């Protein structure tokens, strides 16, 4: 297979946003390495250049970086004298331009102009003021991905409040574990939502949640059917006519609180800075994504995932954002229907389409070819996050979606509300690789000596400060817990928790999470190669791999969920092992393969290898409320080595 699947046109080195940024700051667009070295060696100058290039509304102040030489990562401060408002930057532009496209699984489709969105935000902001919300207060949401959620978020930010949201399909305990940490004053919630063709009534759950969060003084209900609830008001009646106004905040003022998956304890409540969010997202959208005014961005996400907040920042680039509510694939009497997102993309003329490897794998298994079935002439970039993309999926994308576009596998995290490795409009797309290190991020892969390595696996780290590092964790000992999570392994070096590899081309490969790394025979290997091999089998619907302790060592356990009509025969198990041996190495070959009925996932849609291992060992999973399908763990408790394939 050729390693290079796409190359930029010569014009990209003059016309792309990244090329223009290079030229504006005195760099050759064909010399990204020098640009990147400048961005991390003089971060103050680089991030001030991003501020200027992105046309940030606000006052940057005289100092771009106040560096602490004793603790450069944890104590340095960006733009210490700046003042700005995130919502003001998201809501800039002409009143008549399309800002939002709202779509759902049932075919609903409507557009809102920036002027219409501003009026809704102004009204809701006035409602928040009347409810007693002031700067620094927390406003929460339990909402589907619709206009009301965006309006509530922007209204909260506009007055200096802090926004945090959960998806309405989260259980009561999971929501209280999250929003209960931050003292929510006003809560926006949908008492019912629709998913996969079914209506879900969560009014009783909302009552339970509000009862468990005594700080909530006002409950604002969205949707058509609103039950009578104490202290509740309809979204339509909550606001009041008022001019749109923005309170300028310091750069480090909290904007969002996001949460870790929470499978090893209570979810960590990560506080993100106003200025850090804006600058990181402007850099990623404008420079790495080449987002332009008039573009249309979509990402399949719920309102809890960081990609929701990441998507919304496209507004600051003059792009319209798609809010899609519901299932991406529908079950019908004739089988699965993968068309909803692609019908939306065609109708909305999406230019940047965001998805996940699991979704792409399902499309491939169904034989669904979006490029053949839909008009994707507007599509310039397909992006994927949430898990490593296998090399074969790169091939599938260019064959079945569109050959002339950028495919960007991106990787970062909730912790930085952005990406360490991502795409570029002026770099080749290489099979199975993440294209470049993000500008302004001193990304490296370090071995056990804390030496940077290329061509070998190690820990993904960042060695210089950047603006979207968390401000802190909410709650008791928040600073100490934050430092222990990311800086305990290496003093003043961010250790992200990914096993990765940098290539000679400057691209990267993610092999999996450090906490799920397999160590058979004491040799550390990642899980991504095993998942990639399994994804090549049409028989396998989903799978999970983890290490199980055995006689002072560890053996690799692979659990597979098969599509209807297939069996885990000894012959098929041998095929799986052969594919893993040939695609990865003999060390990756599983010792045991089990047939299971379901794969455990977090509420954020990530596989939970650790919970399966813990269950197999007969130990309790610490925070079962963070799992989307906790009941499925029972079958892992009973996995019998003697019955494995």
Automatic annotation (TrEMBL):
The keyword Nucleotide-binding applies. Residues 32-89 form the Acetyl-coenzyme A synthetase N-terminal domain. Keywords: ATP-binding, Ligase, Nucleotide-binding. Residues 98-465 form the AMP-dependent synthetase/ligase domain. InterPro entries: Acac_CoA_synth (IPR005914), ACAS_N (IPR032387), AMP-bd_C (IPR025110), AMP-bd_C_sf (IPR045851), AMP-binding_CS (IPR020845), AMP-dep_synth/lig_dom (IPR000873), ANL_N_sf (IPR042099). Gene3D superfamilies: 3.30.300.30, N-terminal domain of ligase-like (3.40.50.12780). The keyword Ubl conjugation does not apply. Belongs to the ATP-dependent AMP-binding enzyme family. This is Acetoacetyl-coenzyme A synthetase. The gene is acsA.
């Amino acid at each position: 297979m050729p390693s290079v699947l796409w190359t930029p046109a010569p014009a990209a080195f003059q016309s792309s946003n990244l090329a223009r940024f290079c030229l504006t700051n005195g760099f050759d667009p064909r010399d990204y390495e020098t640009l990147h070295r400048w961005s991390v060696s003089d971060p103050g100058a680089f991030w001030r250049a991003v501020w200027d290039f992105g046309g940030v509304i606000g006052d940057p102040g005289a100092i771009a970086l106040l560096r602490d030489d004793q603790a450069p990562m944890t104590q340095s401060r960006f733009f210490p004298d700046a003042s700005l408002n995130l919502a003001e930057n998201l809501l800039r532009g002409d009143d008549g331009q399309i800002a939002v496209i709202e779509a759902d699984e049932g075919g609903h489709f409507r557009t809102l102009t920036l002027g219409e969105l501003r009026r809704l935000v102004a009204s809701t902001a006035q409602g928040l003021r009347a409810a007693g919300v002031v700067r620094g207060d927390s406003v929460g949401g339990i909402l589907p991905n619709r206009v009301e959620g965006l309006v509530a978020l922007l209204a909260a930010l506009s007055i200096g409040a802090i926004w945090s949201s959960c998806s309405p399909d989260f259980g009561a305990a999971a929501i209280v574990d999250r929003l209960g940490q931050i003292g929510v004053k006003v809560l926006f919630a949908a008492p019912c939502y629709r998913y996969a063709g079914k209506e879900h009534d969560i009014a009783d759950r909302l009552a339970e949640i509000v009862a468990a969060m005594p700080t909530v003084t006002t409950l604002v209900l969205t949707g058509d059917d609103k039950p009578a609830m104490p202290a509740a008001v309809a979204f339509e009646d909550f606001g009041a006519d008022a001019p749109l106004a923005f309170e300028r905040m310091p750069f480090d003022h909290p904007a969002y609180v996001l949460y870790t998956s929470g499978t090893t304890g209570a979810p960590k409540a990560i506080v993100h800075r106003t200025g850090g969010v804006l600058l990181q997202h402007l850099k990623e959208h404008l420079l790495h994504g080449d987002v332009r005014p008039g573009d249309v961005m979509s990402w399949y996400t719920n309102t809890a995932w960081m990609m929701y907040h990441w998507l919304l920042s496209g507004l600051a680039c003059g792009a319209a954002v798609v809010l899609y509510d519901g299932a991406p694939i529908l079950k019908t009497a004739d089988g699965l229907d993968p068309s909803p997102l692609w019908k939306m993309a065609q109708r909305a003329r999406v230019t940047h389409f965001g998805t996940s490897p699991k979704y792409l794998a399902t499309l491939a298994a169904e034989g669904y070819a979006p490029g053949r079935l839909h008009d994707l002439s507007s599509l310039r970039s397909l992006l994927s996050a949430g898990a490593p993309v296998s090399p074969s999926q790169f091939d599938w994308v260019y064959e079945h979606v569109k050959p002339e576009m950028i495919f960007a596998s991106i990787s970062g995290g909730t912790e930085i509300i952005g990406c360490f490795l991502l795409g570029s409009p002026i770099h080749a797309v290489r099979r199975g690789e993440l294209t470049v290190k993000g500008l302004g991020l001193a990304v490296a892969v370090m071995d056990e000596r804390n030496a940077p390595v290329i061509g070998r696996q190690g820990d993904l780290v960042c060695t210089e400060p950047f603006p979207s590092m968390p401000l802190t964790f909410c709650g008791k000992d928040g600073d100490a817990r934050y430092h222990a999570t990311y800086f305990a392994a290496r003093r003043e070096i961010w250790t992200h928790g990914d096993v990765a590899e940098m290539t000679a081309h400057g691209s990267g490969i993610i092999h999996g999470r450090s906490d799920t790394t397999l160590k058979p025979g004491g040799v550390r290997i990642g899980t991504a190669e095993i998942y990639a091999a399994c994804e090549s089998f049409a028989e396998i619907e989903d799978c999970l791999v983890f290490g199980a302790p055995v006689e002072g060592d560890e053996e690799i356990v692979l659990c597979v969920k098969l599509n209807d009509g297939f069996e885990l025969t000894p012959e098929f198990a041998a095929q799986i092992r052969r594919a893993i041996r040939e695609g990865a190495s003999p060390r990756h070959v599983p010792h045991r393969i089990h047939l299971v009925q379901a794969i455990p996932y977090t509420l954020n849609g990530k596989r939970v290898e650790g919970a399966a291992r813990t269950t197999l060992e007969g130990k309790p999973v610490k925070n079962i409320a963070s799992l989307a399908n906790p009941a499925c763990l029972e079958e892992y408790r009973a996995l019998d080595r003697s019955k494995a394939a």
